[in-house]
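Internal ticket #5521
Category: modeling
Description: The requester needs a full-assembly model to guide mutagenesis choices. All entity lines are attached below as received. Residue total reported by intake: 330.
Assigned to: D.W.
Attached entities:
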Amino acid sequence: MREIVVSGIRSTGNLHLGNYYGALRNFVKMQHEHDCYFFIADLHSLTTHPDPKMLHTNVKSILAEYLAAGLDPEACALFVQSDVPEVAELYLLLNMHVYIGELERTVSFKEKVRKQPENVNAGLLTYPTLMAADILLHRATKVPVGKDQEQHLEMTRRFARRFNTIYGTEFFPEPASYNFGAESIKIPGLDGSGKMGKSEGNCIYLLDDEKTLRKKVMRAVTDEGPKTPNAPKSEPVENLFTIMRIVSEPDTTAYFEEKYNTCEIRYGDMKKQLADDILKVTLPIRERILEIQNNDEYMRKVVAQGAEKARESAAKTLKEVKKIMGFRSF
Ligand code: TRP
């Protein structure tokens, strides 16, 4: 079934290999199967770090990376949240039926209060309303999100249900969360344990140049090497094999498995091969990122086209919502 998919991209720094094999490749696939609305959540970013000097730069860098990694502005609606002013209007209308108490109980809000006690602004409190507006604006049926967004999505469903009940309508579908599950490949970090993540500081970025990337891979944590044939692998070594299974040819991985099992493996050789194969994935993307970043004309075209698609769907929804709520023109 064709779904209406909405997802917001929050700026959390540059894309790394974990992002690429996780959500991103699924976005790229979904854009051809569903009606997708993907946007850069620049309004949401104001709740934590409003910075006029960086706002546009950040948006540009996210846009270039997502385009380079495969989002196709012809296949989906790819836009900047603030280019669709309808979202602000729906946010205002939805807020009339959102209770302070439920907002205050949101886990992400309580966390932010702890983290930035000097800036507990109303935008932070109503973050879930804005996110609901993003989603309901296109009457989305599916929202791909990570675990940390589950509560926000639960609230979106509640707001949709509440609106429908109050106004005796079926207007808003309740958007289901979409977990990529098995399709989402987890990339481990290079530091021996855990997954690749920005806060872990163990990332290979799509933007890393060849020298930086090679250095990171060559420094990856390993162990003293197998002492007996067919020894079980330690976690750091297993992690290298995991990445290799994803980026390298099966023959290559099989070759190093064999070397490991016969205790002949030289981790240096394996890392060199691994770096070569990661570079085959990331270097072409890196080149595209740099190319797109320098092509303002192209980016301008992309976001204009995206905003146009999004606004068309948004205006339709908003018109209906206002009618349902009782607004009439003279
Ligand atoms: N809150 C999401 C995050 O932090 C980003 C986001 C904003 C979003 N609006 C959305 C995600 C709408 C999905 C749908 O990652």
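Resolution: model delivered.
Comment from assignee: The mean pLDDT is 95.
Ticket closed.
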